[in-house]
Design a protein that fits this description.
With 570 residues, the protein is an alpha/beta fold. The protein is built from 19 helices and 21 strands.
Length: 570
């Protein structure tokens, strides 16, 4: 999808057409720098640090200064091929094994050369993180799960342990989870990587303007991007302090719930209330400045999942999902690139995360569509499950299980190894998201599923579970359980499930030259002086997501852009 630059009224982001200057040296610039980074999340931080290390002066601006999704997530960084952490844990891996696996997940969204370069750089990237103070640890967890126990920091965050994937690529634990102060947190751990690294960048000379929005690019008569117009709240002012308070509240509330679940409208209304108060401060307190970027501008302002107007325009099938991002994911970086003639791709590509393990009992059950038919091995990684549900089953699916599996799920929910949110989600859905019937036929009628199709599906599944037939999806017997003991239950795992929200995140964005990170125009030519990284650009994670791959792609693409800008400076 090569989308045209949309009017601000249609997408809710007032990005302006570029300011054209005839003589760059004649402009009354307020500041100058070699590299201007727009958005200081994971990709922007990587670009800033790499640029500084290569001798560039770097200035970063960020409207919300929340650290991006990399700072707010579970802190999982995807790396392998023999990283220092893997070696310390005794985990065997090789670049070849990692490449074999990522060929399956990344598909053709990037070239073989780019994928190989990412893999080959992976061990050094972990060394780089550690060198700049990022916190990682080597205790390993070897079982299938959506997120490991809180005392484990290296695990399989992907499909590598699933039988059909394991047959194609040797598995290894590649999820490097950030090590928190006490190891007792599940979310927000990303800051234990990005926080120390941001401090390192600031010590090394990064100039950072908080609460500063890039509203307009500046281009010369040859079309080269030479800077940007920035709107800023005065740093250290009372207005800046109030703004920070309001956006922190808005960020928490607006990222918490999808529109479909109970009380969501109240939470969303309250979040929008604080966002309006923050916007009022911006309208009254901001001043404008022009920043010259001698070697380029890096757009690293995240995706657009927090912008419902853009989601409705480009990815309407996912509009009822739970936005998985931070307030900065408004699409502004993508729109800035489009304003300068940048081409886009995969704007309808959204990753949806339907995690059902733990409890293991749910993964031993069956997921069916409206025809009562299975469509996937239920042990797959959550993003793979979500992709099947929304992209291939119209967003409607049910998990079918029996009394025995229900009892097992209750027992497993009490496992002290479970992260609290996993326990809570399990119990809530066992209690409130369970349609019940004495027979499968009656259950099918209750949930609007084809009864004959469900009967055939359960019969075939039970035969495979007993070892009488091969499972058509390659599911292993150890991961199967007979569904035969009534009563029977159905859990709504659709995109708009009231008690099991489906987190969604955008993965489309600006097209970039894979060797440099430069934004491409619609003719496929690089736009001089303009780069994009992270979720502002199409990247390694844009085909199929696995935990930590987007974080790793942010660092990979941010560093790539800075390296190219630095070479131009030689």
């Amino acid at each position: 999808m090569n989308a045209p630059f949309p009017p601000a009224a249609e997408v809710g982001v007032p990005v302006e057409q570029p300011l054209l200057v005839e003589d760059v040296d004649a402009v009354a610039w307020n500041e100058s720098t070699d590299l201007l980074v727009v958005g200081l999340g994971g990709a922007g931080l990587a670009a800033a640090l790499e640029g500084i290390e290569r001798g560039l002066s770097v200035t970063a601006v960020d409207r919300y200064a929340c650290g991006g999704s990399t700072g707010a997530n579970g802190g999982v960084f995807y790396a392998g091929g023999g990283t220092a952490i893997q070696r310390e844990a005794g985990e065997e891996d090789s670049p070849e094994a990692m490449l074999d696996y990522l060929r399956i997940e990344a598909g053709k969204v990037v070239s073989e050369e780019t994928l190989r370069r990412f893999v080959e750089q992976s061990p050094e990237t972990v060394d780089w993180i550690l060198r700049h103070g990022g916190k990682l640890a080597a205790s390993v967890w070897k079982e299938k799960c959506s997120y490991p126990p809180l005392d484990r920091f290296l695990y399989h965050p992907d499909n590598s342990l699933v039988a059909s994937y394991r047959a194609k690529a040797k598995p290894a634990a590649r999820g490097h989870r950030a090590f928190g102060r006490d190891g007792k947190k599940a979310w927000g751990l990303g800051k234990f990587i990005t926080g120390p690294m941001t401090e390192s960048a600031l010590r090394l000379g990064l100039v950072f303007h908080r609460y500063s929005e890039a509203r307009q690019l500046v281009v010369d008569r040859e079309g080269r991007v030479v800077g940007a117009r920035i709107l800023s709240i005065p740093e250290g002012s009372a207005e800046a302090r109030r703004f920070a308070k309001y956006i922190a509240r808005a960020n928490t509330l607006l990222a918490a719930l999808p529109p479909s679940i109970p009380l969501a409208s109240i939470t969303i209304a309250l979040g929008n209330h604080y966002l309006r108060k923050a916007s009022e401060i911006e309208a009254k307190a901001r001043f404008s400045r022009l920043i010259r970027a001698r070697e380029g501008v890096v757009l690293s302002a995240g995706g657009f999942i927090m912008n419902p107007q853009m989601v409705g325009r480009y990815a309407p099938a996912y509009a009822s999902g739970m936005p998985n991002g931070t307030l900065g994911d408004q699409g502004s970086g993508i729109l800035l690139g489009m304003s300068a003639g940048g081409a886009t791709a995969l704007m309808d590509k959204v990753s949806a995360w339907r995690f059902i393990n733990p409890p293991k009992a749910w993964a031993q059950a069956i997921a069916v569509d409206r025809a009562g038919e299975r469509f996937v091995d239920e042990t797959v990684y959550g993003a793979t499950m979500g992709e099947h549900i929304v992209d291939h089953r119209g967003g409607i699916a049910w998990l079918i299980y029996d009394k025995s599996l229900r009892e097992a799920a209750f027992r497993q929910a009490r496992d002290p190894k479970l992260v609290p949110f996993q326990r809570d989600v399990t119990l809530i859905n066992l209690l409130f998201n369970a349609r019940k019937a004495d027979t499968l036929d009656a259950l099918a009628r209750r949930i609007g599923v084809d009864a004959a199709g469900l009967a055939r599906t359960v019969a075939a599944y039970n035969a495979a579970a007993r070892g009488e037939a091969q499972d058509p999806f390659g599911k292993e017997a150890i991961d199967m359980h007979l569904i035969e003991r009534g009563p029977f239950y159905a859990m709504d795992i659709s995109i708009d499930s009231r008690f099991l929200p489906l987190p969604v995140i955008t993965f489309g964005g600006l097209r970039v030259a894979e060797e440099s990170g430069q934004v491409l125009d619609r003719a496929g030519k690089p736009i001089a002086g303009l780069y994009a990284a992270g979720r502002t650009a199409v990247g390694l994670a844009s085909q199929t997501y696995v935990s930590g791959l987007s974080f790793a792609d942010c660092f990979f693409s941010g560093r790539r852009a800075a390296r190219h800008a630095a070479r131009a400076n030689v």
